[in-house]
Specification:
The chain has four helices and no strands. The chain is an all-alpha fold. Helix 1 crosses helix 2.
Length: 143
Amino acid sequence: MTASGARPAIGADVAGRWTNPWVAAAADVTWILVFVAIGRNSHTEGVTVAGIAETAWPFLVGLALGWAVIRAWRRPVALVPTGVVVWPVCVGTAMALRMVSGQGAAIAFVVVALAFVGLGLLGWRTGAVAIERRRAQDGVPNA
């Protein structure tokens, strides 16, 4: 519990380079672009700038909405609540936008997107928390 009686966010105690919202946003965007590039390549759709943009834009809009909903810039590395809110908002928004833009959202794709996007958006946050906590235990100053 904090002095105000609220529970601290998981990962909120982490300091260092990861707490910079620009770094966190770049990590999130990078993961979305990796997901899109892998997906396009595995479906032989071609990994072109135009193709990636066409597939990525719904996810990037969803990512931005997720960041706005939770105000992720305040605690960008926090797994809870930041990561667990940004992830479903990102994927849910992306699926809705894909449907209205005619790109479709087959159930198998929704499941893969939830799994892969969740792995990335939650995974890098979990890793960042672990790294920075380890650094703190070892007495390594924050970067």
